[in-house]
Amino acid sequence: MDAVDTRGLTDQELRHRLQDLGEEPGPISTHTRPLYIQKLRSLQKMAMLQQPIRTSLSAFPGLIMLGLVARVTRNLPYRSQCMSALECFQTFVSAIFYIGKGKRSRPYSHLYEALEYFRGDKTSKV
């Protein structure tokens, strides 16, 4: 989706765009219009961030794994509502500490290992 151009947008067009993004706006007036414009921009940005990335890797039979530093991302999905797309991308990229490849069964092996620790069947390697 392209960035929202709100110049010349009628109240009805604003309402339809908000509804297309799952919002149910109330009355649009001169007082509420700036808030709905801001909400539209926020919803549009979220929709852009949630679009799948189509690359030649989509046919890759394995997984691409990324390790992110939580201290850097600091709940990035929530904070992204108040950030530009560039700031979101820069934060995401700066938080990457590991890139690897794996097999499709890898997430399950992590789950089974975590369950073994939880049940006490396995102890951590120190």
Automatic annotation (TrEMBL):
CDD domains: LEM. One of its GO terms (biological process) is resolution of meiotic recombination intermediates. InterPro entries: ANKLE1, LEM/LEM-like_dom_sf, LEM_dom. GO terms for molecular function: DNA endonuclease activity. GO terms for cellular component: cytoplasm; nucleoplasm. Residues 3-47 form the LEM domain. Pfam families: LEM, LEM-3_GIY-YIG. This is LEM domain-containing protein.
